[in-house]
Amino acid sequence: MSKYQGPARDLLKYVGGSENISVVTHCVTRMRFVLKDPKKADVENIDALPLVKGTFTQAGQFQVIIGNEVSSFYNEFIAIAGVGDTSKEEAKEAAKQNMNVLQRMIAHLADIFTPLIPAIVVGGLILGFRNIIGDIKLLEDGTKTIIEVSQFWKGVHSFLWLIGEAIFHFLPVGITWAVARKMGATQILGIVLGITLVSPQLLNAYGVAGAKEIPFWDFGFAKVQMIGYQAQVIPAILAGLVLSFLELRLRKIVPNSVSMIVVPFLALVPTVLIAHTILGPLGWKIGSVVSTVVYSGLTSSFGWLFAAVFGFVYAPLVITGLHHMTNAIDLQLMSQLGGTNLWPMIALSNIAQGSAVLAMIYVNRKNEEEKQVSIPATISCYLGVTEPAMFGINLKYGYPFLAAMIGSMIAAVISVGNHVMANSIGVGGLPGILSIQPKYMGTFAIAMVVAIVVPIVLTLAFAKANVGKISLKGKKENSAKAA
Predict the structure, then answer these.
(1) Which of 124, 120, 114 has its CA nearest to residue 433?
(2) Which end of the chain, N or C, is less surrounded by CB atoms within 10 Å?
(3) Where is the PTS EIIB type-1 domain (predicted)?
(4) What is the number of other CB atoms lying within 10 angstroms of the CB of residue 415?
């Protein structure tokens, strides 16, 4: 008998049986359920299962954290439950019936940016590595960079920009593809649309401000500026939405016999024209306003207050899914200002959550079963993935989560107060220092130390003071019992 058979039967019973499951799928660490009646799920007994690291509800889905063995467990579960395998997209669509308007908007935004994350992470690592070898004077008594001394590393530095440029400067291609994919439009049309926004024929977005003359298309009765939208987020999203809208509507009215020819042409050509005459300039203006407001807020005399609030609430935002909105803001800041002061705070929040779990490993050092959750969760958190730590440990006890929020808040104030900027996003946790602009790395390192020390000290203090354990259901228990 498989070792997962017993836990799978128990989980099936506690989620309300097969008849209560509308859709079930899994991701890297979690089982994702869309339940017909979420109230039938016995959360307390599910949390008590040895294989379960935690539970939470997000984006209309009841999610059960299993860990790295989720794939094997999932196969056993669906065999016992008698439910069919399904895709994540089908699960998301089914989950929307349990979501309000705001949750749906956030889910759509997340669906656009989530497929782009692997590329953004790679881009962030590349820019970080280029920082180290090209911008920091590490050699000859701090007078020269590595690329100034070594021809090999100079070549590597130049070569890596090929990838970095493809990821960040040509980001609109990925965004328009992701929008088309999300909306059910033809994905290759989304890619073509994105290329028309960053074509070499256009004046590069980064050269617009200093250009003596902007080229244009002359239609006789009208002139359209030939401006590129490299690294621009909002113009790409708007263009992708218009393309999808036109294509999906045309599919309904154009006869099938000619749809393959007519629909792509009538969807793509007008969208490209609209993108360069209306959506591009409008999106650029909106993006500029957003980035200016955020940057001004963070660099104003009240920047410390903004940083304190953001640092304190970012972890709760992750629980609600609202944190996906920061991706668009970060990318817009990067395109407008050449960096972002928002991302460093996110990396610090990751570190703070991991540090709180590290303290809990000591508090519950005699609990061998919990170590199976807490040790991997700490490592995961320090590498930028906080969910196992938050749902498996910190929210389970309550006070470590609060300690991490306080540590994140103090570290964020230090970061923003010293104007720390990141070149890119995507690299979280301890490796996040690689994305920081070289002149701010020392200050960010101090903020990292704070994000490590404060949560550890506060968690140990709260545990010693017997603050109490707060479960996900809100019941208080004596923390000593957990030890």
Answers:
(1) 124
(2) N
(3) 5-87
(4) 31
Report if residue 469 sits inside a domain.
yes
| pLDDT in single tens digits along all 483 residues of the chain | 578 888 899 999 999 999 998 888 887 678 888 888 888 999 989 988 888 877 887 767 888 888 767 888 988 898 888 876 554 455 555 555 555 666 666 667 777 877 887 888 788 778 878 888 887 888 888 888 899 999 999 999 999 999 988 988 898 999 999 999 988 899 999 999 999 999 999 998 878 777 888 899 999 888 999 999 988 888 999 999 999 999 999 999 999 889 889 999 999 999 999 999 999 999 888 888 888 888 888 888 888 999 999 999 888 887 766 676 777 788 878 877 788 888 999 999 999 999 999 999 999 888 887 887 788 888 888 888 787 788 778 888 889 999 999 999 999 999 999 999 988 876 778 888 888 888 899 999 999 999 999 999 999 999 988 765 544 334 334 333 333
H or E stretch at 103? helix 101-113
Query: Could you identify the residue written with the tokens 């949390």?
Result: 47
Instruction: List, by residue number, the catalytic residues.
Output: 27
CATH number of 58's domain? 3.30.1360.60
> ∠ CA(68), CA(74), CA(75), 5° rounding?
120
Question: Do residues 258 and 181 share a domain?
Answer: yes
Give Cβ neighbours of residue 376 (< 8 Å, ≥ 6 apart).
Answer: 67, 68, 388
Q: Which residue is it, tokens 């629980």? A: 319
